[in-house]
Amino acid sequence: MHNNFPKFYYFIDKLDIKYIRSLNKNVAIIYRNYEKKPSEAEIRKFQACCKKNDRKFLISYHYDIAIKFNLDGLYIPAFFKKKIYILKEKKNFITIGSAHNIKEIREKEKQGVQIIFLSPLFKKKNSNGPLGLYRYNLLANHTKLPTIALGGIEEKNLKLLKMTKTSGFAGINFFKSKI
């Protein structure tokens, strides 16, 4: 296991190379589209672009694709409860799990993730309710793993992340606004 994890993660739902070229190179890409499994050609093309630009490329949920194409990592959503054993053997492979409460943190730890996304930190349009800074820090104290803030992060609340025990942040809209 390594500790040289990216600090920023951008969720995308399509493998569009032009879409991400203007982003800072320190932003890792997580392909998350539960409605459409990407084709092998799409994965190869996108992976080649990411490697050429020294950008981390992870995939959500499809651990078979992550292994087959030797991607940089796997994002395991909160709803995915199955334990994944094979990933522990891969060197420099990043496994990230998403959690919203202590129970889900424990599930992700049992799954062997190296990083936990805690969400939603701030209010979003389609979320049940934000954790807020205080609850985020309480949850972060329940794991020894690094945590990443996810949800509702915007330019106007970015400075508030300094008040959390986060190792970085992830999002969709924050990075879309940068493109």
What does this structure look like?
By secondary structure, the protein is an alpha/beta fold. Helices cover 25% and strands 20% of the residues. The chain has 6 helices and 8 strands, in the order βαβαβαββαβαββα. It has helices at 17-20, 40-52, 63-68, 102-110, 132-140, 173-176, and strands spanning 8-12, 27-31, 57-60, 73-76, 94-99, 115-118, 147-150, 169-171. An 8-stranded parallel β-barrel has the order 1-2-3-4-5-6-7-8. Helix 2 (40-52) links the parallel strand 2 and strand 3 (57-60). It is globular, with a radius of gyration of 15 Å. The termini are far apart. The model has no long low-confidence stretch (mean pLDDT 87).
List keywords for this structure.
179 residues
Which consecutive residue ranges, at least 5 long each, have pLDDT under 50?
A: none
Number of helices: 6
Strand order of the largest sheet: 1-2-3-4-5-6-7-8
Question: N-to-C SSE series?
Answer: EHEHEHEEHEHEEH
Please state the average pLDDT score.
87
Distance, first to last CA: 32 Å
Radius of gyration: 15 Å
Helix content: 25-40%
Shape designation = globular
SSE blueprint:
Elements: E1 8-12, H1 17-20, E2 27-31, H2 40-52, E3 57-60, H3 63-68, E4 73-76, E5 94-99, H4 102-110, E6 115-118, H5 132-140, E7 147-150, E8 169-171, H6 173-176
Parallel strand pairs: 1-2, 1-8, 2-3, 3-4, 4-5, 5-6, 6-7, 7-8
Summarize the structure.
This protein has helices at residues 17-20, 40-52, 63-68, 102-110, 132-140, 173-176, and strands at residues 8-12, 27-31, 57-60, 73-76, 94-99, 115-118, 147-150, 169-171. With 179 residues, the chain is an alpha/beta fold.
